[in-house]
Amino acid sequence: MSISTATATPAPRLRRPRRDIGPLDYTKRAWMRLLLAVNFVFLYFPIVALIAFSFNDSKRNITWQGFTFKYYTQAFNNNALQDAFTNSLMIAAISTAVSTVLGTMLGVALHRYRFPAKDVVESWVHLPIVIPEICMGVAMLALFALIKFPLGLATVIVSHIAFSIPFVAVVVRARMAGFDLSLEEASRDLGANQWQTFWNVTFPYLIPGAVAGGLLALTLSLDDFVITFFTSGPGSTTFPIKIYSMVRFSVTPEVNAASTILIVLTLTLTVVAMAMQGRGGNKKI
Amino acid sequence: MTEKPGIISIRNVSRRFGTVTAVHTVSLEIGEGEFFALLGPSGCGKTTLLRMLAGFESPTEGEIVIAGIPMLGVDPNRRPVNMVFQSYAVFPHMTVEQNVGYGLRVTGVARAEAAERVKEALSLVKLGGFEGRMPSQLSGGQRQRVALARALVKRPKVLLLDEPLSALDAKLREAMQIELVRLQKTVGITFVIVTHDQDEALSMANRIAVMEAGRVRQVAAPADLYEFPNSRFVAGFIGKLNLFEGRVAGVQDGKLALDIKGLDRIAVPFDGHASGEIAIAIRPEKLRLDRQPSAADRIGVRGRVSEVAYYGNESHVYLKTDDGTSVTANVPNSARSTRPTIVVGDELWASWDAADTLVLTE
Prior knowledge:
The complex is a heterodimer of chains A (285) and B (362).
Chain A: H1 30-53, H2 70-77, H3 79-112, H4 118-130, H5 133-146, H6 153-176, H7 181-189, H8 194-223, H9 226-231, H10 239-249, H11 253-283
Chain B: E1 8-17, E2 20-30, E3 35-39, H1 46-54, E4 61-66, E5 69-70, E6 81-84, H2 96-105, H3 111-124, H4 140-152, E7 158-162, H5 170-187, E8 190-195, H6 198-204, E9 207-212, E10 215-220, H7 222-227, H8 232-237, E11 242-252, E12 255-260, E13 265-268, E14 277-282, E15 288-290, E16 298-310, E17 314-321, E18 326-332, E19 347-353, E20 358-360
Parallel strand pairs in B: 3-8, 3-9, 6-7, 7-8
Antiparallel strand pairs in B: 1-2, 1-4, 4-5, 9-10, 11-12, 11-14, 12-13, 14-20, 15-19, 16-17, 16-19, 17-18
Helix pairs in contact in B: 2-3, 2-4, 3-4
């Protein structure tokens, strides 16, 4: 309706009356709902199909033959897959532990202190987040080649730590943005030294941020492919890389089963990470 | 203050942030057991001064001595003072009891003694029974009591309060003013409060330092500050004023003769030194309004009522004199009546006793 219509008589209703739909009630409109549904199908159908076909009782993944768990058993009994999974877990555990500690320290430092060229440091911290993974992988490979460091578990772990730190730092920093600095001053005023103040006041506040950042690092490490691909050597094959090499032969339901396990694992961790962040936000005064 | 040095001696203290001078050569002696207020508009340096006492800022120049010990280079955790923060800074992840006991725990006070002192401090601020509550379950006023108990449990020589009442609503604020005075009398230690609220300072403190742009303009007891301000700034900042500009004409019968714009030559008692351009001021509640010219022994000015603001207990009457000067008079509504006695347009004489005139040389 045009704005210039200033007459008091109502315009004849040409459309079906929209009962109780406010201008911002987008989810009540049919076309909007349809668009939403199409989007969801587009985004999630491949994943749903992947999971569904992991239960398919057929050697090839084209037609549905019947329900079975046998490819899960097969995947679990695949020694190479097991080794890759163990590698992934170990890499993820170590890189998460290290990057959470370093990333938290970085996040706190960026929030807390003023130092020369802080702005530069801050933007460089974000670099590994925005830089294409392929570049990071090649750069890592070049570095290790330059210093003649043999590729293996160690190089993968170092690379994972390197790209996880910024994510942890960013999450911790965001958490610290809501921190009232007078809490630290109050602690000092009441007789605590800097060390006591950090552990009694600052640290309890940033725990949700550190945990969320750590879970993010864990997820990133578990399903990283590109950087790992460049930096892994013999004996350090990770789960995603193993799946990729299996796909090169044929997409069997076993691959689907293995992928499903990875999806469930990362999804769980992500949900926990989000829950931690949410909880931290609610507890704030 | 020439007698024994106080619990706090601030000597020629300045604090600069880059090119900005927040505190400019301030010297103050604060005595033991005083309720001392630092009063001034925002940005006058009062909070910076308080933070220097607490140890969160260090003076660029000058010296601070607390309880006989120079405070240069002494960390906040080693000073015999404790602070109540404007935001209260109650630790959100600790219960009331843990909050109050924190300062004892980190300094290694024995558990049994600490428990005893926490209990005592909580009953002092009337928070007995709240030990297990989390700060999120407390009201603003209760959180402030936690902050108070947490500071007092340390038995400081001086308690510093940074705008402690600014976050409370008007009713609670008045109750808390009385409460703070009671608390200070009970524990007997020196309180130093920073405030921008003149009523707060006047009603609570024994002595007030009025600050402006980093400098202390006047230090005096509340009544002295109100009735004998030493400058236009202090007179204007504390309470309301009717200000008249003029010149000194000379001395006449031991009184100061003044030529004031809008008034005739007046003579006021004054025992200081004054010459040249000068201002006089009169407080609105010291004016009397009459329908006919005032008595000869009073200083009077004629005006027309331009507005009347009714406040229940009193009315503020705004007059415009013939030369356009505004004069405000506060008239108590002492008789029970709903019919206004003064209405807009009335022609009245505002007058005051010459002895009530404030002569402001600066």
